[in-house]
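Exercise 7. Given the encoded structure of a 275-residue chain, write a plausible sequence.
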């Protein structure tokens, strides 16, 4: 399967963001991509007030446009993530998989909230978004995809839980900051691929967005050996790579680390900690 990650400099102009995203998705499809991944908050990126006021339903402008692209191009489209309005409190940061028929095949709501200070900017996602509580996976051809979003990348236990449910690939739509990305982005993306012997499709935002957000870019596709198969260094664009399932099977067969795990040893009940 050929896959692509799309990199965008989204901001507060939803119409412009959707126009750019649509053009890049179409360009990736023309290169033969059967699965295209958009970044986090691809249709609207701003502070908590902007995101809350601009929250949409699954029938809103962003996902309706994405469903149309998937149907017209005949591709699987991971519509990154968008701020989904909720009838039960705060919005959620929701990732949506769309089939070549334009149908919604899976939804994932970001579990880990980015409440940190990075590069002198304070981020408090939990002030304006509620965390998801469920894992999500979907089958596309020979791939079983586990869904994550941005800050989730720092929590290997989530990826292990998805691996235990059969994941052979992970999607990581992101708005990973430059302050953290320059030191951590590539290391974390490749680590999640290596330790799970899986493909990682990490589509990131790039550049500045109001009021003071700076995203690292460097969207990449990484293989199960940890090798970078394709990358968008800077600016808006996309990168494509073939996901070689035979090569993945070979890696998992010859270096079967994921079958050598002994998670039962790491529960409190069996720890000799003196308690």
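Solution.
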């Amino acid at each position: 399967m050929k896959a692509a990650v799309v990199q965008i400099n989204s901001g507060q102009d939803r119409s412009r963001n959707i126009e750019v995203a649509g053009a890049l998705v179409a360009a990736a499809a023309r290169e033969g991509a059967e699965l295209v991944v958009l970044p986090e908050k691809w249709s609207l990126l701003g502070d908590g007030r902007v995101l809350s006021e601009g929250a949409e339903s699954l029938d809103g402008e962003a996902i309706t446009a994405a469903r149309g692209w998937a149907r017209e191009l005949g591709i699987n489209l991971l519509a990154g993530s968008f701020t989904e309005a909720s009838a039960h409190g705060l919005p959620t940061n929701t990732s949506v998989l769309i089939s070549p028929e334009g149908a919604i095949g899976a939804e994932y709501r970001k579990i880990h909230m980015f409440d940190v200070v990075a590069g002198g900017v304070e981020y408090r996602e939990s002030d304006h978004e509620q965390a998801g509580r469920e894992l999500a996976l979907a089958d596309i051809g020979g791939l079983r995809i586990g869904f994550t979003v941005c800050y989730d990348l720092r929590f290997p236990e989530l990826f292990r839980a998805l691996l235990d449910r059969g994941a052979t690939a992970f999607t990581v739509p992101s708005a990973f900051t430059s302050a953290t990305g320059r030191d951590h982005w590539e290391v974390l993306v490749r680590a999640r691929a290596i330790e799970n012997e899986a493909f990682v499709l990490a589509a990131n935002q790039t550049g500045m967005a109001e009021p003071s957000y700076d995203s690292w870019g460097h969207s990449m596709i990484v293989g199960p050996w940890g090798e970078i198969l394709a990358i968008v260094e800077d600016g808006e664009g996309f990168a494509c790579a073939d996901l070689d399932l035979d090569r993945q099977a070979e890696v998992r067969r010859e270096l079967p680390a994921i079958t050598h795990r002994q998670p039962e040893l790491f529960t409190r009940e069996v720890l000799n900690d003196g308690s």
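Remark. The helical segments are 14-30, 48-53, 61-73, 156-164, 178-196, 245-254. Students should compare their own answers with the one above.
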